[in-house]
Amino acid sequence: MPPNSSPSKSRAPLAVRLPWLPVALQIFAWGLGLALAGLMSLLMVVAIALAVAYPNLPDVSDLLDYRPKLPLRVYSADAVLIGEFGEERRNLTPIGDIPKVMKDAVLAIEDARFFSHGGVDYIGVIRAGLANVGRAKSQGASTITMQVARNVYLSTEKSYTRKIYEILLTFKLEHLLSKDQILEIYMNQIFLGQRAYGFAAAAETYFGKPLRDVSIAEAAMLAGLPKAPSAYNPISNPKRAKARQLYIIDRMEENGFITPAQAATAKNEQLRVKSGPNADRVHAEFVAETVRQLVFSQYGDETYTRGLNVFTTLRAADQQAAYKALRKGIMDYERRQIYRGPEKFIELSKDPQETEDAIDDALADSPDNGDVMSAVVLEASAKKIVAIRQNSEAVEITGDGLKPAQSGLSEKAPPNIRIRRGALIRVSKTPKNTWEITQLPEVEGAFVALDPRSGAVRALVGGFDYEKNKFNHVTQAWRQPGSSFKPFIYSAALEKGFTPATVVNDAPLFFDAGVTGGQPWEPKNYDGTFEGPMSLRRGLAKSKNMISIRVLQAIGAKNAQEWVTHFGFDADKHPAYLTMALGAGSVTPLQMAIGYSVFANGGYRVNPYLITKITDQKGKVVVERPVPGLDESARGIDARNAFIMSSLLQEVARSGTAAKAQATLKRPDLYGKTGTTNDSIDTWFVGYQPTLTAAVWMGYDTPKKLGDRETGGGLSLPVWINFMDYALKGVPVTEFSA
């Protein structure tokens, strides 16, 4: 040991050597105490929160039998969807029926560790927390279970209280339900835009296909919607939707759900996104609305949430044929009318972008009406019109395509009629695939077809366009039937001893006010001529008014008024005056179809019906209607009377005012009668083949002349023929036998 060294100096106390240590230890002790106190306080707060919040959590046991809001769906007899009613468009799909590719896409972007965590993904929370450092906008870490808790039970409010409830509910759900049950609820519950809830409804909404058929690319596009359905909507925001789809495909590859080759193929796939209503959909809006009203009267507000499926008597193909036939008939009439001018005019500036925006706004405000499409005129002259349609489609109209609007192309045309730059017009494609100017019709129409053996409604079109006019002319329009009512007067005459060979004089008549119940009356035949004595058969075939009036005179108006009730007509709608012989009463097109069905089925009254059965969301039958048969309790007229009337109506379709029917359709088993009221205000054709009865009406909602040369044979009969040409394909000829 060195001589000057001292043990006491070499081993000085630590506090002397480190004078700050006591203070540090004291601070550490205080800090540890505070931390422990804070932790205890936090645990106490959590415990209190659990004690208070947990008992108040919603009962989640109802999710064991998950029953979301499901819309009312209306189907044709052959199971084609024709209508849907409800705030939430949803197709409840069991987890086993959801394709793996759809589940993989959702898991890849929403919760890749879904099957390995207990409801809260702590790794995801830490990652999101680190990502949020320094960010103004936070990044979420919600798992699928947390989203189910939030979407089913909680609001979208952002608060600590709601977050606590969300986490507690998440643990409760994870304890009660299996992972597959939780995923099934998520896949069916989540909102995905366009009123679509769940991925099955979204697949139909955006791609027009069942969920089982979606590709990797389509699944990735759909999986991008939960985060922000509006922002990533492939219809309204295709660029943003595509960017998110590509990101999700990358995530699917990173997580091993797809191979690099599948990812590359999916990224290059061209998606066909539905930009509007399906062009091939069956137009049965009037039927769907009628069914909705019937179901609502039974089930009330549950109609829109219970998931009922209603199957109707409609045949989808026949319904579409009826829709097209009526629209064609109305548009054919419209081509003969004076051009009423553009629908409106818009200012087109010299700035290209402003012009494009103005055109887009105008076309959005006046959308296409089926094949009657809207366009904005860019150039107009007497020989050519250049217009632009939606999606910047250019339209050039020349030659015959300008004829319907010739009056609007004259320089002398009034300002509201003249077609010029900025005019919004209607155009349509011709059979030659060229364009022509047209206009939305003001005239209306109605079509209904029944099975005369049961009353089942096979097709019903209540007007030109449901969105334009929701008034159902088939069931609600009370109009004069004109000469189409004559067969019921003739039937009454047969009951009083007349025969088809009975001769009646086609000669002038005059009646004073005491006979008519109103003004003096000097009736005329349609053509203004008189042909003298002729048989009842010939009188009906040529629709001779004088014959019908004399027949009614002979049998008595009171007798005829009572007789027409055998066909389902209201006596008080047909006053007992001689004008009844010319169809001066009031009927609906549906009533006329019912009345003619009595002739078609051998004399039985039928009650029309639309609904065959109703099932619940699981397919269990709730209500089912047996097909009604014909029995004597429903007899309206004698079978012999019905047989003779069919013979008379067959003559009308063979050589009379409806001769075009048999001549066009090339079959003898067609029966019917035209109808035209005074001043051509209403036109009709009602007819049948033994398996199908159909009635057609055309006229204005506010009664006015259709035109001096417009008749039931010229306006309504072609609609009936066009429908029957399709509906009777493959139906064997069936004539009545004595």
Give a description of the structure.
- Helix content is 39%, strand content 13%.
- The longest helix is centred in the N-terminal third of the chain and has 33 residues.
- It is α+β, with helices and mostly antiparallel strands.
- About 2% of the residues have low confidence.
- The chain is built from 25 helices and 20 strands.
- Among the domains are: 36 residues; 181 residues, Biosynthetic peptidoglycan transglycosylase-like (Penicillin binding protein transpeptidase fold), CATH 1.10.3810; 95 residues, Nucleic acid-binding proteins (OB fold (Dihydrolipoamide Acetyltransferase, E2P)); 105 residues, 3-Layer(aba) Sandwich (Beta-lactamase).
- Strands 6, 7, 8, 9, 10 and 11 form a six-stranded antiparallel β-sheet that branches. Strands 2-1-5-16-17 form a five-stranded mixed β-sheet, covered by helices on one side. A five-stranded antiparallel β-sheet has the order 13-12-20-19-18, sandwiched between helices.
